Amino acid sequence: MRRPRLKPALRRVARDPRTLQFGLHPQRASVLHDLEPSVLRVIEGLDGTRELRQVVADAAKEGLAEEHARTLIGMLLQRGVLDDAAFPPPLTSLSLAERDRLQADLDALSLHPETVDGGAAVMERRHAAHVRVYGAGRVGAQIAVLLAASGVGNLCVCDTATARPRDVIPGGLGWSAVGAPRHDGAVASARAVAPGINAWTSASASHPADRAHHPALAILAPVEPLDQILVADLAEAGIPHLLVSAFEGLGVVGPLVQPGVTACLRCLDLTRRDRDPAWPTVSARLGGYPAGEVACDTVTATIVAATAAGQALSWIDERQSIVTNGTLDVMQIWGWRRRSWSVHPQCRCSRNQLH
To answer: Rounded to an integer, what distance in angstroms lies between the CA atom of residue 182 and that of residue 166?
Structure first.
């Protein structure tokens, strides 16, 4: 910690003359009690303009011994209310307007208790990430736009089907996209919110099975029944992939598959077969599962897209994703449920994990 600064995004409230609260949400709030006026002045003076040694020296003028001043700084750091202002600002390659747009996301990232760089490292990781979205319907197009708006710097959207009026949705495809390939509309929407993004369509994309640069994450948001050949290609290439679906007014996010490490989509299929002997027949008659966007209403599609984008960002940010070896059942009413899945012993991926 070189230049301690109270996190600008963390609201401070004086509960009384000797009690200071950091943060408002119950999961963020931290309260300091019985503070002397001199200690309060030292805390309020942590604006990031002074080196730590100068902060300690100035605290001595307020009557705090060096040991007490350093203990105070350490306690504030432990409680997750300090940044180190010595870190350089992120995303200097972007325009001032785009950096200003991303400030709210940086503020949110900065609030992680172990983050002291104002969220800069995570935002730079997002900016360097390459994500590929397969499917640009009511859910997939929104996911693409949300990722672009959240700072993902490289985005490929793959969906050559023609956009229809039923694909139009707030935050996704607009009316101007109708009649053109869906991926064109999704890329246009992503660029509209993030002009500096490097975004392209499947017309310029590499195939998962070739040796070109692979994405850090592929997101499967099928509008039609899921393409099992694509799933096999992603697994064979070792590309992490997240399945997202919304149908019959409900949604499912997950699993996020790490090939050779976690349960794969084939594992889920085999588990369903074990529980329901008729499952192979049902799946075959659907043409694949999930069956695509069937009765995918606007609100459900939006909730599912936001949840999926959040899980994708958790992966990019190198933080825990709750849909690794799991799925989230998403619905409009409060009744979400997480299901756990295991590697199936008869799946090829279980053999791959042994090597």
So the answer is: 12
Residues paired with 135 in a beta bridge: none
In the predicted structure, residue 222 carries a pLDDT above the cut 90: yes
Sign of CA dihedral 180, 184, 186, 191: negative
- Which residue range is the domain that position 63 belongs to? 4-84
Measured distance CA(172)–CA(145) in Å, rounded:
7
User: Both 324 and 196 in a single domain?
Assistant: yes
- Domain with residue 76: its CATH number is 3.90.930.60
Amino acid at the residue 149:
A
Taking only the tens place, the pLDDT of each residue in 249-265 is 999 999 999 999 999 99
Q: How far, in Å, CA of 54 to CA of 59, rounded? A: 8
Domain total of the chain: 2
Q: Which among 70, 21, 14, 23 is positioned nearest to 42, based on CA atoms?
A: 70
Q: Please tell me the distance from the alpha carbon of residue 126 to that of residue 159, in angstroms, as a whole number.
A: 23
Q: What is the pLDDT of residues 122-134, one digit of tens each?
A: 999 999 999 999 9
CA–CA distances in Å: residue 347 to residues 235, 239, 264:
12, 18, 9
pLDDT of residue 178: 99
Give the domain CATH number at 337.
3.40.50.720
pTM of the model: 0.94
Eight-class DSSP state of 215: P
* CA 78 – CA 52 distance, rounded (Å): 16
136 and 57 in one domain? Answer: no
For residue 335, what pLDDT is reported? 75
What is the structure's pLDDT at 202?
86
The per-residue pLDDT for range 278-295, each reduced to its tens digit, is 999 999 999 999 999 999
